[in-house]
Design brief:
The structure holds 2 protein chains of 2 kinds.
Chain A (H helix, E strand, L loop, with lengths): L1 H5 L2 H14 L8 H26 L3 H16 L1 H10 L5 H12 L3 H13 L8 H7 L3 H9 L11 H9 L2 H21 L3 H4 L3 H21 L6 H24 L4 H12 L5 H9 L5 H36 L1
Helix pairs in contact in A: 2-13, 3-11, 3-13, 4-8, 4-9, 5-6, 6-9, 6-17, 7-15, 7-17, 8-11, 13-17, 14-15, 14-17, 15-17
Chain B lengths: L4 E11 L3 H10 L6 E4 L2 E4 L2 E4 L9 E8 L1 H11 L9 E9 L7
Antiparallel strand pairs in B: 1-5, 1-6, 2-5, 3-4
Helix pairs in contact in B: 1-2
Classes of the chains: A mainly alpha, B alpha+beta.
């Protein structure tokens, strides 16, 4: 499955973008287009997830997965923080800011992972979209607590921080689209499927081409990254992702949903969390947390992580359990 | 001949999430008129940067205000302690303006 994942057009477009950036090509996707596609992807993911839950109804598995996602997002920053402080030699503020990124999630990693799992016959349950939305923000709270709330030098009003944390655009769009899909159901979704369902993979390809360019260019400007932090950016998704998969299987989720929980746990935010951290912990280095999450962890998950989480969910952990 | 008046031009280059903080500090110093300018990219002490609307965390915005010297000094005093910790760039220059009442 790992090799199969590598040969998917979405991943190949990501690699094309990365190669173009490494070759210093002038290839570029206009920022407004990339921003527009990211909004489209979140709407499409939310709508499709809500539509599927409308079909299956609210299940025991959905509640379990939601609880597991919430717990993971709150707790994953804790071991990450310890590793970043000890092995990564980061100061408290930087370690807390980076740890928050690794407790939160990457929507695009989830979208790509879902497509790859679907292609492999392991489609995750529709309610995993709700789990994705649930996992966006709790890690931010843990990160801020780890940094001893707001840094002394932060001038961000507390109300502004709460607003940014709980009402950031991606959470609103994901949850809102999920609810619209839930209300509309499969019947209501059919007329808008030509816009939000059929072109999804193609749009994801364009977006990942841009992500390849961004990730590779950020890697080339890697002043803030050290060998230690780069190694942790590879280790943290493996540890978190494996924990997510094992938790999913142990809770009785199907292999696809367990793999999706692993993808969520193993991914790192680069949209919602950086904006909040820049405001709340201005002394933390954005080059460090964006370099780790976007330039190292995101490409790793796309090329190796997703295939690995799927393999553990489908073969390894069920075998260990006997 | 058109009459011109001396004013101070203040420019602050900051990451987009910090702009509300800059605006609040400017208002506290009596500067309520300003312009925000988008940027494409550049290079500084922390390396190269580009407009990045994806996360928005490191997309840089230029805050521009033209005001009287008292307001300008008050704003600079408020901002100076944050320049290092918040990675801000602050520029101040003398300008001549027409219709000075627009730049109080």
């Amino acid at each position: 499955m790992a090799l199969d994942a590598l040969l998917q057009p979405v991943v190949l477009f990501f690699l094309l973008g990365a190669l173009a950036a490494f070759a210093r090509s002038d290839l570029a996707i206009p920022e407004a287009v990339a921003k527009g596609i990211s909004l489209y992807l979140m709407m499409s993911i939310g709508l499709r997830g809500g539509g599927e839950v409308a079909e299956t109804g609210f299940t025991h598995d959905m509640l379990l997965a939601g609880g597991a996602g919430l717990a993971l997002s709150f707790l994953l920053p804790l071991p990450a923080f310890w590793l970043l402080r000890t092995a990564g030699k980061l100061d408290r503020t930087n370690a807390a800011a980076v740890a928050a990124h690794y407790g939160s999630v990457s929507v695009v990693t989830f979208a790509t992972g879902s497509e790859i799992l679907r292609h492999a016959g392991m489609a995750p349950a529709g309610f995993m979209v709700a789990v994705l939305a649930v996992m966006e923000t709790p890690a931010i709270i843990t990160g801020l607590l780890l940094a001893r709330a707001q840094g002394k030098d932060s001038l961000a009003p507390r109300g502004g921080l709460l607003h940014e944390t709980f009402l950031n655009g991606s959470v609103i769009l994901l949850l809102g689209s999920f609810l619209i899909g839930l209300v509309a159901g499969k019947g209501g979704m059919a007329p808008i499927a030509p816009v939000f369902d059929v072109p999804f993979r193609g749009m994801l390809c364009i977006f990942l081409l841009d992500m390849g360019l961004i990730a590779a260019r950020r890697l080339m400007d890697r002043r803030a990254l050290t060998v230690r932090t780069a190694a942790l950016a590879l280790l943290l998704p493996l540890l978190n992702g494996t924990l997510g998969v094992v938790l999913g299987v142990e809770l009785g989720l199907d292999a696809g949903s367990s793999a999706a929980l692993g993808i969520l746990a193993g991914s790192a935010s680069y949209i919602a969390v950086p904006a909040v951290m820049r405001l709340a912990l201005p002394a933390a280095d954005p080059g460090l947390y964006l370099g780790m999450s976007l330039a190292v962890t995101f490409p790793f998950n796309l090329t190796i992580g997703i295939g690995y989480y799927g393999w553990v969910a489908a073969h390894v952990w069920p075998l260990i359990r006997g | 001949m058109t009459t011109t008046t001396h004013r101070r031009r203040i420019e602050v280059l900051a990451d987009e999430p910090l702009i509300p903080v800059i605006i609040r500090l400017a208002a506290e110093a009596g500067i309520i008129h300003y312009t925000l300018l988008p940027t494409l990219g550049g290079a500084g002490a922390h390396g190269r940067w580009r407009d990045d609307q994806l996360s928005g965390a490191t997309a840089k915005v230029m805050f521009l205000a033209v005001t009287g010297p008292e307001h300008a000094d008050a704003f600079i005093d408020r901002l100076a302690p944050l320049l290092e910790s918040h990675h801000l760039m602050l520029m101040s220059s003398d300008v001549e303006v027409v219709r000075s009442r627009k730049f109080d």
